[in-house]
Amino acid sequence: MNKIQTILFILLVGFASTISLQAxxxxxxxxxxxxxxxxxxxNYPGAKILTRDDAEQVHIEHSGSNLWCDKAIHxxxxxxxxxxxxxxxxxxxxxxxxxxxxxxxxxxxxxxxSGDVIxxxxxxxxxxxxxxxxxxxxxxxxxxxxxxxxxxSGTITSRIGRYYMNQKKYQFVEDVVLVNEESTINSxxxxxxxxxxxxxxxxxxxxxxxxxxxxxxxxxxxTQNKVGYAIKxxxxxxxxxxxxxxxxxxxxxxSFASATNNIKVTDTINNSIVKGHYAExxxxxxxxxxxxxxxxxxxxxxxxxxxxxxxxxxxxxxxxENRIIRAxxxxxxxxxxxxxxxxxxxxxxxxxxxxxxxxxxxTSGDKFSVKRxxxxxxxxxxxxxxxxxxxSNNETxxxxxxxxxxxxxxxSRDTIxxxxxxxxxxxxxVGLFNDENQMRQVxxxxxxxxxxxxxNDKQELIGIDKSKSGSITILxxxxxxxxxTRFNQVDGNLYPESQFxxxxxxxxxxxxxxxxxxxxxxxLFKDDPPLELKKIKGLxxxxxxxxxxxxxxxxxxxxxxxxxxxxxxSKASRxxxxxxxxxxxxxxxxxxxxxxxxxxxxxxxxxxxEE
Length: 611
Description:
The chain has helices at about 5-25, 550-565, 585; strands at about 30-35, 35-40, 50, 60, 65-70, 70-75, 80-90, 95-105, 110-120, 125-135, 140, 145-150, 155-160, 160-165, 170-180, 185-195, 200-210, 215-220, 225-235, 240-250, 255-265, 270-280, 290-300, 305-315, 325-335, 340-350, 355, 375-380, 380-385, 385-395, 400-415, 420-435, 440-455, 460-475, 480-495. By secondary structure, it is mostly beta strands. Among the domains are: about 25-140 and about 550-575, lipopolysaccharide transport protein A fold (Sandwich); about 330-520, Lipopolysaccharide (LPS) transport protein A like domain (lipopolysaccharide transport protein A fold, Sandwich), CATH 2.60.450. The N and C termini lie far apart (about 90 Å). Pfam families: OstA_2.
């Protein structure tokens, strides 16, 4: 080999080695400007010390990112920079980070920033005392407290935070608080998409507004449109109502909420509870109402004896001090000493008037008209009529009286005979109750007719009394007829039982309906069809943060270490965050990842259950 060939060979080998080194190390950090360059091998072996001048700061560039600072220590062999004083890092038009100090490896593309760190992108701003920034993965991370500001969504603080820049997604962990003009959100685990304002809450979480407080352990909230839904121990507290259910949808613009499955709505002012499996609630000055169905049950809680109303549908309307309960279609009422049925029941909680109403469109010949005709049972007495009113005293929590309008009919079975019934019918009935809520007196007026099984003190049958009169007053004792008085009697007679014709023993309109009588709260539901609860579609499970320092970063650090001075500690790995896998969060979830850009998979602002 001649001399020229030898020189060319050496040059080619050296060039190939340089290419190999650059491929291994990545693009070199470039010094664009420095006012002064010095060497201090004693304190900074192998480094160049760059300082600014009066004209401008030190300017450094690497792979499309630019950095400015007052002073920089550049380790060219390790492709590493330390930047001090008024540090600015810019990456294109998207990332602008300022701090007091930054160190950056051109091999790992990992930056460590400290001292009043502020990172801005077009969607939000991150502030923290310490921030880790991985340019290769486009992720930023803090673990000792930070703040994120999103103009339209508010300010978010947390102890741990991670920003996935390509996805515009934040993951916050521990002591998470979002505050904006309309609401405050507190959560343990909180995923937030800065471009849409979508927030996903996991663990014990609350959303507090001026008019409500929502609690859940899994939920979604659209911070821009102010709508969301909650599942898992979901609850909404309004000024005077508490709504609980398996799934709650809420719109804070209109103070509207809907609930699905195992619903309980508590009225804290009127001391009442409404239950069911689908409900809608409106709050506000203009409208204040509750609609509930699917095993709907309204409970007026009383110290002595609570009142239960069940129907296909229940609606509660009116201001808190004047609530009206409307139960319609197959309505039933129950308390221990009184129960009833009708097509619909209206109860005014302020006046204490409860109305049992018949369906007005049905004629007397309709096969449903009898079954839906209002009926009440009190002890051994059964009362029916076209309309029945119960009048209660709200202070004593007791029934004072009842009114039966049109076709009044009261029946009680004779205490001894098997098929004998005491009966009174007339146009109108007025009943009075004693302090034990037992019927004390009944007045039947206009075209009163009666059949009584008259007995002596020894309960021996004297005869069967049948008569017609203008009106009748009956006095009761322990549910039995004690005394009765007829006014303006037209006719009447006392028949021995053997001489009283069978066909005369019942009055027109007689209908003994004892088998329909509810004798417990459970009996209110015995005629209902089987109920199959809707399946809650719900939200995807929480996906916890993986290690910020993952295998990919460790591989990059290994490459950087191979270029470092073996006699000195590695610079590329000296300020890495410790393992950040959040095992606390893993108890909430299954690893199920959804791309934030696949909008078809992201929850939309609508109810969880499509009714």
